[in-house]
Amino acid sequence: MPKRTLYSEDHDLFRESVKKMYAKELVPFVEEWETKGLVSREFWKACGDNGMLLPDIPQAYGGGGLDFKFNAILLEETALAGTTGPAFGVHNDIVAHYIHNYGSETVKSHWLPKMASGEAIGAICMSEPSTGSDLKAVRTKATPVDGGFILNGSKTFITNGINADVAVIAARVGDDSGAKAISLFVVACNEKGFIKGNKLNKVGNRSSDTAELFFEDLFVPTENMLGEQGSGFIYMMKELPQERMSIAISCQAAAQHAYDLAVDYVKERKAFGKAVIDFQNTRFVLADMKAKLQVGWAHLDACIQALVDKELTTTEAASAKLWHSELRCEVVDNCLQMFGGYGYIEEYEIARLWRDARVMRIYGGTSEIMKDLISRSI
Ligand SMILES: Cc1cc2nc3c(=O)[nH]c(=O)nc-3n(C[C@H](O)[C@H](O)[C@H](O)COP(=O)(O)OP(=O)(O)OC[C@H]3O[C@@H](n4cnc5c(N)ncnc54)[C@H](O)[C@@H]3O)c2cc1C
């Protein structure tokens, strides 16, 4: 990995503590979580006990009171440890931020300390069976009643859907079909009418639980609406750049991890009487990946700094999500090829990295939607 200047000594110390914690509490459990389709709650609790959750949320709400670079370190280290299981991007970078930025004081002081301690796990519920890319088309309905709203509808592909204790739900108030009817609600997942459906059987990212959710006459008090009624779509557009950066960060680190594994492998593996790395093709493919990774880290660091400085534009975040997710898929596929047949065998980590990569071009907005967003700025 090239030398990076983004991080200070405090960030480096945090990274070291995360690495140590992961060596004990994460790496030995990845296979078990992959089989169960779920990261253990004990791990989330251990992260809370080690002060790793909600790094950039103010200390008054149980967070670390730090900057987003600490969130980025968690994402990088998780990917460098070879898993995408603990969905810190969703919990730390998305759900906590919706609650912190738009929640009432009661909602913030109830949920954020629980999320910081690992007692409560967060989920973001935008996608529905009939719509994902086109968020304006969500059908989940919030009907105004005395003291709040009654939610009816369903969501799908929800990360942390099974483990979740708190969910931010996008729903439509009234019969208007436009974006202005969408509002966001914070809901405890054990409320009557909040039904967790099937854990979806995915191609990759298997240790991360992804579920269908159903809302049947789910009562949500008015104070659990985030911000202003009808502003949900605007809030989503404001928060999506940070979600997209979380994905870009994970992708760059996961690509680096796959590259490092491949370099180790081709130095050991022999064919035609020499190490696989000694073939010019292997060295050229590795060189191409190394150059792209170097450029990738420089670009990523510039975007993280811009995000911390609140200067990252929607277009830049979309470009970062597009480029780093495509890079991850390209690098991981090239690296699997270097493992030959072993690359296709589950006991080799590269096989899992290859499966895990594919969804990165889909969730958080597909590559096509990223291109559409970028093209609007031209
Ligand atoms: C593992 C996983 C985890 C996820 N986690 C979450 C989560 O936690 N919360 C959540 O809310 N959602 C989540 N999602 C949903 C994800 O964000 C959506 O799947 C994604 O946004 C695409 O929506 P869709 O599946 O409905 O595809 P569609 O919108 O139906 O798109 C189908 C195809 O059409 C293309 N397309 C659509 N519109 C256009 C256009 N305007 N121009 C060009 N091409 C277009 C798309 O790019 C795609 O190739 C998750 C998905 C997966 C698979």
UniProtKB/TrEMBL annotation:
<dbReference type="InterPro" id="IPR006091">
    <property type="entry name" value="Acyl-CoA_Oxase/DH_mid-dom"/>
</dbReference>
<feature type="domain" description="Acyl-CoA dehydrogenase/oxidase C-terminal">
    <location>
        <begin position="230"/>
        <end position="378"/>
    </location>
</feature>
<feature type="domain" description="Acyl-CoA dehydrogenase/oxidase N-terminal">
    <location>
        <begin position="8"/>
        <end position="119"/>
    </location>
</feature>
<dbReference type="InterPro" id="IPR046373">
    <property type="entry name" value="Acyl-CoA_Oxase/DH_mid-dom_sf"/>
</dbReference>
<dbReference type="InterPro" id="IPR013786">
    <property type="entry name" value="AcylCoA_DH/ox_N"/>
</dbReference>
<dbReference type="Pfam" id="PF02771">
    <property type="entry name" value="Acyl-CoA_dh_N"/>
</dbReference>
<dbReference type="InterPro" id="IPR009075">
    <property type="entry name" value="AcylCo_DH/oxidase_C"/>
</dbReference>
<dbReference type="InterPro" id="IPR009100">
    <property type="entry name" value="AcylCoA_DH/oxidase_NM_dom_sf"/>
</dbReference>
<keyword id="KW-0274">FAD</keyword>
<feature type="domain" description="Acyl-CoA oxidase/dehydrogenase middle">
    <location>
        <begin position="123"/>
        <end position="217"/>
    </location>
</feature>
<dbReference type="Pfam" id="PF02770">
    <property type="entry name" value="Acyl-CoA_dh_M"/>
</dbReference>
<keyword id="KW-0560">Oxidoreductase</keyword>
<comment type="similarity">
    <text>Belongs to the acyl-CoA dehydrogenase family.</text>
</comment>
<dbReference type="InterPro" id="IPR037069">
    <property type="entry name" value="AcylCoA_DH/ox_N_sf"/>
</dbReference>
<dbReference type="InterPro" id="IPR036250">
    <property type="entry name" value="AcylCo_DH-like_C"/>
</dbReference>
<dbReference type="InterPro" id="IPR006089">
    <property type="entry name" value="Acyl-CoA_DH_CS"/>
</dbReference>
<protein>
    <submittedName>
        <fullName>Acyl-CoA dehydrogenase</fullName>
    </submittedName>
</protein>
<dbReference type="Pfam" id="PF00441">
    <property type="entry name" value="Acyl-CoA_dh_1"/>
</dbReference>
<keyword id="KW-0285">Flavoprotein</keyword>
